[in-house]
Amino acid sequence: MADLFEKAKSFFFVNRCAACGELLKYDSDEALCPVCRAKWEDEKNEKCEDCKQIQTLCRCGFEGCSADTVGHLASYSHKEESVGKQLVFALKNSHDSHIVGFLAREMAENIRTYLFTEDAVAVNVPRNPRRVSETGYDQAKMLAKALAKELGVPFVSVLKQKKDKVSQKMLDREAREEHARRNVVFEDGASGVIKDKTVLLVDDIGTTGSTVSVCSSILKENGARAVHCVLVAKTKLETPDKNKKTLDKSAK
Ligand SMILES: [Zn+2]
Ligand SMILES: [Zn+2]
Q1: CA of 23 relative to ligand 2 center, distance in Å
Q2: Please, which pLDDT band fits residue 165 given cuts at 50, 70 and 90?
Q3: Cβ pair 79, 162 in contact under 8 A
Q4: Closest ligand to the CA of 34
Q5: Angle value at C-alpha 55, between 50 and 57, nearest 5 degrees
Q6: Within a domain: residue 43?
Q7: Which end of the chain is more exposed for a tag (fewer CB within 10 A), N or C?
């Protein structure tokens, strides 16, 4: 019976590589084909230009960011194609639980190498509700939930963004921070769930760190002992005009 179910599943649910689209084995819990998987491992092992550590060990974070640490798996530029970039793009657009699960496992594995997570709670970086209703999907929340499950810690959604017409895409660092300060709010009466806890602040990509920084400050003001931001990837803010198209796709 279970066998029959698995066979039916393989017929209806086709898994494809998130980067190149190649067909994957139906029972694979990978999100990448072997070729892209190898490229992904290389990307995680690329040296950070600033600290010279590999990406998974890099803790450079963002300038002036109030999170205690910022960890990520890979770093990419909007100008270049990379598996990391395609994973973030696929996460944002495909609603695929397969990709969410894969990234949550990868993140959990890395987090365990540098953080004690026994008293941790996972919190998602809040999305603009307008964008969530447009896409019907909140990838940071999905990722935070999956990561919490993977680490065996609670997931709590204590941050919210007010409805706002301004898109962050074309804003510089200061404007983004100002925007986040005006729009991110803490859920009323929720401070009990993060009090004296280590908060894992989860998002897919970080560009300037301004939203992360504002979220971290708010979490600490509400009793969090420490805030560690965990990202799939870091990316740099490019000059909007030159790369508007790519930026529109994956920056926020
Ligand atoms: Zn592939
Ligand atoms: Zn670094």
Answers
A1: 35
A2: confident
A3: no
A4: 1
A5: 90
A6: no
A7: N
